[in-house]
Amino acid sequence: MGNLFNNYEEACAIILFGIGFTTLLLHRNMIKKIIGFSMMDSAIYLFLAAKGYIAGRKAPIVVSVSVTALMLALTVRLYRRYHTLDIDEITMQARREEA
Amino acid sequence: MAKQRNDYENSWFPRLQRWIAQGGTRLSDQMTEELSEASDAHRVLSAEDVARREVEQAVHQLEIQEHEAALYERAHQWGRTKGAKLIRAFYAVLAVLMCVSVIAVLLTTVSNLPSFGGENNPINNEVSQRYIEKGLQETGAVNIVAGMILDYRAFDTLGESHVLFIAACAVMILLRLSDSGDPRQLSRERMEAEANDRLYEPKNDIILQRVAGILVPIIMLFGVYVLFNGHLGPGGGFSGGAVIGAGLILYLNAYGFAATERFFTIKTFRAVSFIALAFYALAKSYSFFCGANHLNSGIGLGTPGDIFSSGLILYLNIAVGMVVACTMYAFYTLFRKGDM
Amino acid sequence: MLEWLRFVIAALLILAGLCFVISSVVGVYRFKYVLNRMHAAALGDTLGILLIVLGLVVKGGLSLTSCKALLLVVLWWLSSPVASHLISRLEVTTNQHLEENMAVKTESDPHKEVEA
Fold first, then answer.
1. Domain that holds residue C19
2. Domain-located, residue A90
């Protein structure tokens, strides 16, 4: 068990990362998956800040904004094409169109 | 208990006894018997018999096919409703298990990390000591963080601002209304975008316009203040740029595209982003070849606490802030209307 | 004595602000229609933050920091109601089933109500 309760900030950051990952996997709506991704990002910032990473303090947040913007742009295009936000439906329709 | 058998007479020993009692038959006699039996089955079939047999076979075939089709239908129906639920539940359980195992592995790693804030941690090594001790003296910036990200590690920030610009370009590729192609499709897309915009966004909302008239100058002023004071206090390029971008978005929301196009079009976006990034690249990109040391920029360090101190940091802050503001505004207007 | 009085007044103000914010959160989760939820969120926020900031000002004493906190309240009061107004306006313009559940005053004639 070691230092698990001493480093409770890092432990909380890891648990938040796990929750974000679970959200990414378990929902079928794409917007909810993007929210899970954003939770994973925030968990990583918390971990870095708890570790005392001084240089590049604002840089990770900029990366998160760019990644979220790109994913949302892709979601908008997918919605305009398939008119649904459900990832299972989109996969089924895409496979049907291929055949 | 063993299986009870009632036909003792037909088991092998009595049969052997009977066979011996009959004198035993020879194999050739048995074969001729069987041949004469089989020849009885060859009868000449008449035409009606053949037709009747074919009809029976066709009906039988149809029944088998319908039976199979019904079976498939039931299987697919089950697959679509209950099977889908079963697979989803299975997937959910597996996903949760995998996430729990990932969390467990990472938590064991965390428990083996050095204590939080301990003094012998590997992170408190001589690099951070030097940055903290000599930061003010070598970079001239009172804010050590700004001195670090724009002077000691300037090429990191070069990559960061390029990441923002690339993200804006990617979103523009995905969402911008097409410029080329046949003019009928182009104008129809534009009219659709205009109609959507008119329906969902506020046009000439009097409350919004009055409040934005008060708030936008304050926000812009605050953003410029944060930008210029990056080396003296908390702030700097990214935060100041985000605030200026927010001010631009509020102005666009209140007064519409026509009023904003007077001073911020796609050409402005291109020019500002390019000039800012090119300036930054010219100033610091040779660090790739010099092993992250940089030459003297010739601009004096000045006294700490002045606004024109710390050499190139002020100008690099302004460049980064411009890129960030343009990118924030580009994200907003591309998602809203698809054009700038 | 003065310290103790200051602490009590600050605690009461902060607790009152907290009550308003909690009731607005409960309203956001429990109401059925969008406009009701919007109403709960917008009203609870503004009064709640005023009381909390006043409590902090009383506790910390009057100084430059407390003036900045009051400026914060002014900024919040300028921006949050406008945001709620815009969201509600979006809801009214885009919800097709609005007339089934509530009476809507059309903009052309403010004295005429469109009954459900």
1. 2-96
2. yes
Q: Which of B176, B157, B177 is nearest to B319 (CA)?
A: B157
Min mean pLDDT across A38-42, C47-51, C60-64 is at C60-64
Residue A52 sits in a domain of what CATH number? Answer: 1.10.287.3510
Residue among A2, A21, A51 minimizing CB distance to B123 = A51
**Structural domain that includes position B267:** 142-294+304-336
Q: Do A10 and B163 touch (CB under 8 A)?
A: no
Count the residues in chain C.
116
Q: Across the A/B interface, how many CB contacts are shorter than 8 Å?
A: 119
Longest dimension (CA), chain C: 61
C104 within domain boundaries: no
CA distance B198 to chain C (A): 11
Coarse DSSP helix, strand, coil percentages of chain B, rounded to the nearest 5 percent: 75, 0, 25
Phi, psi of C113 (to 5 degrees): -100, 140
What's the whole-number mean pLDDT along residues B153-162?
Answer: 85
Task: Flag whether residue B165 sits within 8 Å of chain A, measured between CB atoms.
Answer: no
Do the domain assignments include residue C87? yes
Q: Say if residues C42 and C8 touch (Cβ distance below 8 Å).
A: no
Instruction: Please report all neighbours of C, defined by 3+ CB atom pairs within 8 A.
Output: B
Q: Are residues B212 and B279 in the same domain?
A: yes
Q: Are residues B153 and B208 in the same domain?
A: yes
Count of structural domains, chain C? 1
Asked if A25 and B95 come within 8 Å (Cβ–Cβ), the reply is: yes
Q: Considering only CB atoms, which chain C residues are within 8 Å of B215?
A: 78-79
What averages of pLDDT result for each successive group of 10 residues across chain A (99 residues)? 78 92 92 94 88 66 88 92 90 87
Q: What pLDDT score was predicted for residue B296? A: 66
Question: Are the C-beta atoms of B85 and A4 separated by less than 8 Å?
Answer: no
